Structure formats: structure tokens, C-alpha cells
UniProtKB/TrEMBL annotation, chain A:
Organism: Rhodocytophaga aerolata
One Pfam family in the UniProt entry: PadR
Family annotation (Gene3D superfamilies): Winged helix-like DNA-binding domain superfamily/Winged helix DNA-binding domain
Protein name: Helix-turn-helix transcriptional regulator
Domain Transcription regulator PadR N-terminal: 18-90
TrEMBL record, chain B:
Membrane-crossing segments per the record: 96-118, 369-392, 426-447, 467-491, 512-532, 747-770, 791-811, 831-851
Keywords on record: Cell membrane, Membrane, Transmembrane, Transmembrane helix
InterPro entries noted in UniProt: ABC3_permease_C (IPR003838), MacB_PCD (IPR025857), Macrolide_Exporter_MacB (IPR050250), Permease_put_prefix (IPR047699)
Localization in the cell: Cell membrane
Keyword Coiled coil (UniProt): no
Protein name per its UniProtKB record: ABC transporter permease
Pfam families to which the protein is assigned, alphabetical: FtsX (PF02687), MacB_PCD (PF12704)
UniProt membrane topology term: Multi-pass membrane protein
Domain ABC3 transporter permease C-terminal, chain residue ranges per copy: 377-493, 750-863
Species whose genome carries this gene: Rhodocytophaga aerolata
Length: 106, 870
């Protein structure tokens, strides 16, 4: 079965996009990521990841939501596509399966 | 938003520059939003730093990669036809500008082509010999009588055979000596250049023979090889093997048999000959075993494996082992230092200025400086033409802004526009290129005359040269077209379509280029004036004697005292002949002892008539005279420089010892005023006369020169029936000293005229454009009462300022170059201010004339018509 590979960082970004539920854009995703994982993430890395995710068809984007802070520039909002949420589920299932196989210790 | 809360501008610009446009909005938005937050939380400095870092971190492949447009791209060839059509239409519509561009470029290209031709010929010298890399000329480094070292390509009879005997790497040697002889063919006599070479000449050098066996033609001591052209001149046919040519040797004629006919020597050959005689003849008749003689060329061929660097030191070893005794003897007689022998590659002879000894059958040596200067001038002119193209196209492009806008709106991208404009410059260049080829064909004879060449257009069929021309064409097209293509394609379509588009800024480029053009032109102009003045000085300066109506009649080598006396008697009754004198031919130099030290000076034998005939005044003492019979043996006359160098206060009665190796004292009886017996390129040297005879120097009465000449010729034929009559007017001979300078004068004049012409047509074009652009302004000014002259001044002032500035720029370079050139002459003019002033006025007048035609035309237009137009 051919599967599109999803990197660890991409997976986290995709999860956050799903969590933010339609309100996700570059900066917000970065901040949320830092808040949730506690690690420092560069904005450009997130943009690059989003770019790749969109190419793979896991996210969908639309422009909108210009604010004054942004100098009137619009945001690109991302939402998870069906393919994206399926990919997340598959990863989840594989993990659950593997956890289930783990011998009980002690 | 608070205007002060802005990230560093340059970082923002950097981002906008590298980031793909389709990503820029979101990325920049995110960055600004974050900056806004950080500014409030952490202050300006920290926020700025973070912003810069973040921008830099976005330099990643995905931001650099441009999104490909969603529509189909036209391929390069799709629009090609359209480009050509538009280019031709555009040229047709703007005839004036196309003419200016094409005229300028074709002149520039033609100059460059001629120089290519010239340079190619220069470097092709002597390359046709099969053994070219193995042939060397034996050279010598010698101390001269003043103790300075000088280098010569001449050696002697003994060097060749000795070297071959002692050095195993030497495969062969050829000695080569040239001479002038009177030759007799059947009954006619001619004065002819002869070349004497060893018998293996044709196996060492690759000169093809039309008839005769190359290995054997010169093996007989009475053989002669003649060139095809000479055979035709002398016999009227090239089938001359077996015929006889007689050579004057002393008092008799000796027969030589033609054994071979050679093809004419190629013009790019250093070795030039008409008649070849066996050197063995000279070697047998005038044997010479001295190593310290330097009078012929010796060529050697090395074995293919031999390295000439390793062979070269062996030459001195052979010399030292063979000539120690001779050197000792010479040093006792005042010879200073030790000569060194070396090898000079055949291929270097033509352009080598160090061993400037181009004689004994070698011709056309040339200074590489000549090539450099000619190339420099040609490139100057082409550059000026390219500048015209750039300036006019850029300035003219305002009119084409609408076309550019439309092309962009319907989907033409910048690359396509660049290609279009480059194409236009190539079309223009191509037409210029074809015209330049035609021009080259037309001016080639004139150029040959100037550059002392025999170039022909058939050279162009050569592969490398054709390649070079193609390269020249492409390079010119690129240089001329690159900048306009770059600027024009950058027009913003919205601006160019919606409003009148004007250049912003001050147009430094156009100004700079005009200044560059006119600086070059002014430079050449000043140099031309300097060259003219110096030339005028050389040809009109008082030489200290009179060379007018003075005929030199050659009598051949040696002392002809009886013959000279007969001539004097015969011509005494001739009304048209004023006076007959005699002096030996050419100018010899020798050494003698004066006041215990050695002096190097010029030496001549003259009769008592010589000084009065040439009107050389005496400063002290007396001339030679028949009344003093002892004059012939004991007396000398010297010039003032001689007196000065000898350190004499009262020269009359002083003595000079050992003149010409003649071990006795000679007494000074007279001193002549210094006169220029050499050309003005050289300082006056010490000069010493003894009594004697030689050639005839005959002064004719003014206005009867033709009659006098006829009388001389008749007498000559009567007295010396077997010799061809050869004569020369001295003023013409003197003028010939400055032939090289006369050629420089012509070259520099042509260069200056061409550069000014090309610069001015460019200026003309620019004026047309600037007046067109200001039509309405001129109209309004006139309505408000400006006079025609005020308007004309307004329009020309700007350009005139540029020209003046260029002139100032050119002055230092021109001054320096002129000084350097003048240093070649012992007698020179001073570079004075009036030369610069004259050049300045000339160039200003020419520029003013160019500009004012348009300016005046514009200033007299009725304002009503210029204001209505739009």
C-alpha cells in the first residue's frame, strides 16, 4: 500500500491545523506549536512545512483576515483535507497497534 | 497603525526581493504581525534584530522558487519573425536615427576589421616555414665604443660553420648577406638588390621553386636563383633556367647561370629576395676568420629534440674556446668588454625591437607598439559608435513606451522584451557589418599605403579571421544592445500606458557617455595638432645647409677621383649646373684618439667643393684647398660638436691620432658650424672630414633643374656607359627621413576625423530628441517673449557644457601622450598652450555647429503650431 510519507514535524503541524479548526495561519500555528510542545520553532520552518503539506494535498488554504498589524496583508488560513485527516488517523492507528503489542512490564 | 512601528526597511526590501511573489503577502503579513507583538513586549532593538533574523531564515528553496505561470509560454522562435518585422519597420520610420546608428557602427566595425587584418598579418610572419620552430638566428650582445651594451642580430662568416662543427644539436646553418650590384642581362644594366645564401637555403626555409632542384640549385658557385617576377622583368618569361646574368665585380662583369626559378616571396615573410647567389662565392673570394665582425645574418636549425635554452650557453663556450686570442688582441686595441652570443627564434624576428637589426635580406621589421596604437584607435572609434547606439536608443525609447506597455499587457514578459531589443541591435549591427565589409574592401589600398602593408581581402577567407569577425559582430551587437534592452524592458506597463512617461533622474549615464565620447575625440584632436606641429618643425627647420636643387649622383663604391675630375670638367661648361662637389656615399662612423682619449664620431671624405656647394658655413679656420697640397694627407675639418667633445679652446692646429686605424696625426685646419647631417631625430654628433672623393653632389641653378639633370645624365652615360644612372634630389631624401612621421600624421588625422564624425552624429541625434521632447516648452517660452537666440542658447548650452567638460578631461592624457611621443626626437617642439586652445576651439565649433542646426530650427517654429501639436 502506497502511503505518502508524513514527517514528524509535518505531523505536528498538521495536528495543530486540525486543532485550530479553520483559524490556523502561519504565525498562529507557530505560536500554538511553541505553547503546546514547549520547543522553539522558526516561522520559516512552519511555512515550509505548510507548503509541503499543501503540495501533498493534506491541507487546503484560503486567503483572508487582513489586520492593521499586518499592514493590511491577508492571512493564509489552512484547514485539514479529508486526505489529511485520514493520514493522521492512520498514524494514530499504527501507533495504537504498536502500543498494544508492547509486553507488559513489571 | 502607528507609523513608527515599522520593521527595518532594508530587511523588508530584501524579503520582497528574494521571496516569490505568490508567497510574499502571507509571509510578510505574518512577519509584521509578529514584529508588532514583539515590539510591544520587548522593545525596538530586540524586535528589529528578531525581524532581521527571521527574514534571513526565510531564504529557503521554497521562497526562492518562482511559481510558473499557468498559461503557455511562447517559445523563443515564436516571436522571432515579429521581432524582425518590428525592427525593420522601426528603422524605416526613424530614418535619421537608423542612419546615425548604422553609419557610426559601420565606421567603427570597419576600423576594427582593418586592424584585425593588420594584426593577423603581423603575427603570421614567417609561419609558413616547415621548420619554423627549429630555426634561430644567431644574435650577439656587444659593448659599443661608449661602453654601453647593445644587441645585434648580425654575426660573421665564421660563426655558422664553427657552431655546427662544435655543437651536436646544430643540424644546419645558413648565412645570409645582402648587397646591391649592377647586373647586366644581355645588354641592359640594372641596379639590383642581391642576396647571398648558403646552398642549403631551400632545404632550411620553405620557399617553393617553380623550376630547379631545391637541393642543388645553389651548389654551383656560379649559380643564381631568380624569382618569377624578376625573371619576367628581365627576360619577359619565367622559363629562364640556363640563361646568364652578369654581375659587376670591381671593374669587370662576371657571369652567373640561372639554375632555378623561385616563387615570389610571400609578403608576410621576413626574408625577401629577388636574386639568390651562393654565399660560397663570397666565402671563397673574401675569406674572413674573425669572430669580432658583425655584418651578416646566420641562421641555424636545431635538431627536433634539442631545447634551445640548453643549446644557447654552448655558443659562448664555442666562442671562448675559438676566439680567446682574437679577443685579447682586440682588447689591447681598445675593444671593451666581451661579446655574448645567443639564439633568436625566427618567429620573433619580425616583432622584436630588442635586436632591431633588420637587414641582410630581412625586411618589414615592425614595432609591436604600432599594432597596439592602431588597435587602440580602432576600439576607440567602435566604442564611440556603440555609445551613440546606447544613447539614442535609450533616449528614443520614450516614444516606444506605449509599444512596450502593450506588449507587457498582452503577456510579453521581460525576457521576451530583452530579446526583442537585442534583436533590434543585432539587425542594426548586421547592416553595419555588411557595410563595414564593403568599406574595408574600398579603403584597403589606402590603408596598405598608411600601414606599409600589402594586405588583400582574400585574407578574410581564412577561418580564424572569419571567426574573429563573427565574434566582433556578436560582441558589438551585445555591447550596443545590452543596456537599452535592459532599461526598456523594465518599463512599468501601467505608467507607460496611462501617462506621458519621462525619465526620472538626471540621466547620468547619457551624460557620462557623451563625455567619454568627446574626451576620446578631443584627445585625438590635440594629439593630431601636436603631430602636425612637430612634423612641420621637422620639415621646415633650418638644417644648417641648403638642400635645394642639390642632386646626389651615385657612382658606386670606392674612390672615383679621376672620374669625379672628368665630371667636373665636363659639367663646367653647363649653364644649368652651378657647382660640382664630391663626398663619399652614406654616413660612416669611426673612432680615433683625441687628447689622449677615445672619441666616437661621424667620418666623411669630401672634396674642396663640398662645403661651399652645400653652403655649410665655416666657424673658424679654412676649407680644404688646392693651394695646400699637404691637405690630402694631413688635414682635417671638424664640426663644432667635435671641438666641444674634444675639449679644445683653440681648435686650429690641434691633432687627431689614428683615424680609421691610420696611425698618424692629422691636423685640424678648419671648423664648420654644426649642421644636421643626420635626421632631426638624432642629436648632432661630432663630425670629421678628410679630403677625398666618392659620389657626386651637384648644385643646379634654380629654375633649370630639369635641363641640368638632362645634362648630367648625358655626361653620365658618356662617361660610365655600363652603369644605370641613379640620382636623388637631397631635399626629397631629407623628406624621406620623416616618412614614418608622415604616415603617423595621416593615421592620427584619419582617426581624429572619424572619431569626431561619429561623436558628432551621435550628438546630432541626441539634440533632435531633446528638442522634440521640449517642443511645448519652447512654444510656451516663445509665447512669453523669449527670443529665438535665447531658445537656441537654452537648447545647446547643456550639450556644449558636456563637450567643454570632456575637453578638460582629455587635456592631461593628451599632454602626457604628446610628451612621450616627442621624446623620440632629438629636436622637438614644446607642447604649448595654443595647441590645446586650438583643439578646444575646433571641437567646440564643430559641436556647436552640430547642435545649433537643430536648436535654431526649433527656436524659429511658430509657437502656435508647436503648442497645438500633441
Amino acid at each position: 500500500m502506497k502511503r505518502t510519507y508524513l514527517g514528524e514535524f509535518e505531523e505536528v503541524v498538521l495536528l495543530i491545523v486540525a486543532v485550530l479548526n479553520g483559524q490556523a495561519y502561519g504565525l498562529m500555528i507557530t505560536e500554538e506549536l511553541e505553547k503546546q510542545t514547549g520547543r522553539s520553532v522558526s516561522l520559516s520552518a512552519v511555512h515550509a512545512a505548510l507548503q509541503r503539506l499543501e503540495e501533498k494535498g493534506f491541507v487546503h488554504s484560503r486567503m483572508g483576515g487582513a489586520t492593521q498589524e499586518r499592514g493590511g496583508r491577508r492571512k493564509r488560513f489552512f484547514t485539514v483535507t479529508v486526505a489529511g485527516s485520514r493520514a493522521l488517523q492512520e498514524i494514530q492507528e499504527v501507533r495504537m497497534h504498536l502500543w498494544g503489542m508492547m509486553p507488559k512490564s513489571g | 497603525m502607528n507609523a513608527s512601528i515599522r520593521p527595518p526597511k532594508w530587511a523588508d526590501q530584501l524579503l520582497a526581493w528574494f521571496c516569490a511573489p505568490h508567497l510574499l503577502e502571507e509571509i510578510q503579513g505574518d512577519l509584521h504581525e509578529r514584529y508588532h507583538k514583539q515590539r510591544q513586549e520587548r522593545g525596538k532593538a530586540a524586535a528589529d534584530a528578531a525581524y532581521v533574523g527571521c527574514v534571513l531564515s526565510f531564504i529557503r528553496p521554497f521562497t526562492l522558487k518562482r511559481k510558473s505561470p499557468p498559461y503557455i509560454q511562447a517559445s523563443f522562435t515564436d516571436m522571432l519573425q515579429n521581432y524582425f518585422i518590428i525592427a525593420l519597420r522601426h528603422m524605416k520610420r526613424n530614418k535619421v536615427f537608423s542612419t546615425i546608428n548604422i553609419a557610426g557602427l559601420s565606421v567603427g566595425l570597419a576600423c576594427c576589421m582593418l586592424i584585425f587584418l593588420y594584426t593577423k598579418d603581423e603575427v603570421s610572419f614567417d609561419r609558413f616555414h616547415e621548420k619554423k620552430d627549429r630555426i634561430f638566428r644567431v644574435s650577439a650582445t656587444l659593448p659599443d665604443p661608449e661602453g654601453n651594451v647593445f644587441k645585434t642580430g648580425s654575426t660573421n662568416m665564421i660563426v655558422g660553420p664553427s657552431l655546427q662543427q662544435e655543437i651536436p644539436e646544430m643540424e644546419a646553418y645558413v648565412r645570409m648577406s645582402s648587397d646591391r650590384h649592377v647586373i647586366r642581362v644581355v645588354t641592359k644594366t640594372f641596379n639590383q638588390q642581391t642576396l647571398w645564401v648558403d646552398q642549403n637555403f631551400f632545404s632550411v626555409f620553405s620557399f617553393p621553386l617553380l623550376s630547379g632542384n631545391p637541393d642543388k640549385v645553389l651548389s654551383d658557385i656560379r649559380a643564381v636563383v631568380i624569382t618569377e617576377q624578376m625573371a619576367l622583368t628581365y627576360f619577359g618569361t619565367s622559363k629562364v633556367v640556363g640563361k646568364t646574368i652578369e654581375l659587376e665585380m670591381g671593374e669587370t662583369f662576371e657571369p652567373f647561370t640561372v639554375t632555378g626559378v623561385a616563387k615570389n616571396t610571400p609578403q608576410n615573410s621576413s626574408i625577401q629576395f629577388d636574386l639568390l647567389f651562393p654565399y660560397q662565392y663570397i666565402a671563397e673570394r673574401f675569406p674572413d676568420k674573425e669572430w669580432l665582425g658583425f655584418y651578416i645574418n646566420t641562421f641555424v636549425v636545431l635538431h627536433p629534440q634539442a631545447q634551445y635554452q640548453t643549446v644557447e650557453p654552448k655558443l659562448d663556450q664555442v666562442f671562448m674556446s675559438k676566439a680567446t686570442e682574437e679577443l685579447k688582441r682586440a682588447q689591447q686595441n681598445g675593444f671593451k668588454g666581451v661579446p655574448h652570443f645567443g639564439l633568436q627564434p625566427l618567429l620573433q624576428i619580425h616583432l622584436d625591437t630588442e635586436y632591431g637589426d633588420i637587414r641582410n635580406g630581412l625586411q618589414y621589421g615592425s614595432n609591436p607598439m604600432y599594432s597596439y596604437i592602431l588597435s587602440g584607435i580602432a576600439i576607440f572609434i567602435l566604442l564611440i559608435a556603440c555609445i551613440n547606439f546606447i544613447n539614442l536608443t535609450t533616449a528614443h525609447s520614450l516614444k516606444r513606451s506605449k509599444e512596450i506597455g502593450i506588449r507587457k499587457v498582452v503577456g510579453g514578459n521581460r525576457g521576451q522584451l530583452i530579446r526583442q531589443f537585442l534583436n533590434e541591435s543585432f539587425v542594426c549591427c548586421f547592416i553595419a557589418f555588411v557595410l563595414a565589409l564593403l568599406m574595408v574592401v574600398l579603403v584597403l589600398p589606402f590603408f596598405n599605403e598608411l600601414a606599409n602593408k600589402r594586405l588583400s581581402f582574400s585574407y578574410l577567407l581564412d577561418g580564424t579571421l572569419a571567426g574573429a569577425y563573427l565574434g566582433l559582430f556578436l560582441l558589438t551587437g551585445l555591447i550596443a544592445g545590452f543596456y537599452p534592452a535592459f532599461v526598456l524592458s523594465g518599463f512599468n506597463p501601467i505608467q507607460s500606458l496611462s501617462k506621458r512617461y519621462t525619465f526620472s533622474g538626471k540621466n547620468y549615464l547619457t551624460k557620462g557617455l557623451v563625455i567619454a565620447q568627446f574626451s576620446l575625440a578631443a584627445f585625438l584632436m590635440i594629439v593630431t595638432i601636436v603631430v602636425y606641429s612637430q612634423f612641420d618643425y621637422l620639415t621646415t627647420k633650418d638644417l644648417g645647409y641648403t638642400d635645394e636643387h642639390l642632386v646626389h649622383v651615385s657612382l658606386g663604391r670606392g674612390d672615383h677621383s679621376n672620374l669625379v675630375n672628368v665630371f667636373k670638367n665636363e659639367l663646367a661648361n653647363e649653364a644649368s649646373v652651378e657647382r660640382v662637389a664630391s663626398k663619399d656615399f652614406g654616413q660612416n662612423f669611426t673612432i680615433a684618439e683625441v687628447e689622449g682619449k677615445e672619441l666616437f664620431f661621424a667620418f666623411s671624405r669630401i672634396d674642396e667643393n663640398y662645403l661651399p656647394t652645400l653652403q655649410i658655413p665655416l666657424a673658424k679656420g679654412r676649407n680644404f684647398s688646392k693651394n695646400y697640397p699637404a691637405d690630402a694627407e694631413n688635414s682635417i675639418v671638424v664640426n663644432e660638436t667635435f671641438v666641444k667633445e674634444a675639449g679644445w679652446k683653440d681648435p686650429i692646429g690641434k691633432t687627431v691620432y689614428n683615424v680609421n686605424g691610420n696611425a698618424k696625426n692629422l691636423t685640424v685646419i678648419g671648423v664648420v658650424k654644426d649642421y644636421h647631417f643626420l635626421s632631426l631625430k638624432e642629436k648632432i654628433q661630432p663630425l670629421l672630414f678628410r679630403l677625398g672623393t666618392g659620389d657626386l653632389w651637384i648644385k643646379l641653378k634654380p629654375a633649370q633643374t630639369l635641363k641640368g639633370l638632362q645634362a648630367i645624365e648625358q655626361t653620365y652615360h658618356k662617361l660610365v656607359p655600363y652603369r644605370p644612372f641613379e640620382f636623388a634630389f637631397m631635399d626629397e631624401v631629407n623628406r624621406k627621413n620623416y616618412e614614418a612621421e608622415a604616415k603617423w600624421k595621416q593615421i592620427i588625422t584619419v582617426a581624429a576625423m572619424l572619431s569626431i564624425f561619429v561623436s558628432c552624429i551621435g550628438l546630432f541625434g541626441l539634440t533632435i530628441l531633446s528638442t522634440e521632447r521640449r517642443t511645448r516648452e519652447i512654444g510656451i517660452r516663445k509665447v512669453f517673449g523669449a527670443s529665438a537666440s535665447q531658445i537656441a542658447t537654452l537648447l545647446s548650452a547643456h550639450f556644449i557644457k558636456l563637450v567643454l567638460f570632456s575637453f578638460v578631461m582629455a587635456v592631461p592624457a593628451a599632454w602626457y601622450s604628446s610628451r612621450t611621443w616627442l621624446e623620440n626626437f632629438a629636436y622637438q617642439i614644446d607642447v604649448s598652450w595654443w595647441m590645446f586652445a586650438l583643439a578646444g576651439v575646433l571641437i567646440l565649433v564643430i559641436a556647436l555647429a552640430t547642435v545649433s542646426v537643430q536648436a535654431i530650427k526649433a527656436s524659429i517654429i511658430n509657437p502656435a503650431s508647436s503648442l497645438r501639436s500633441e
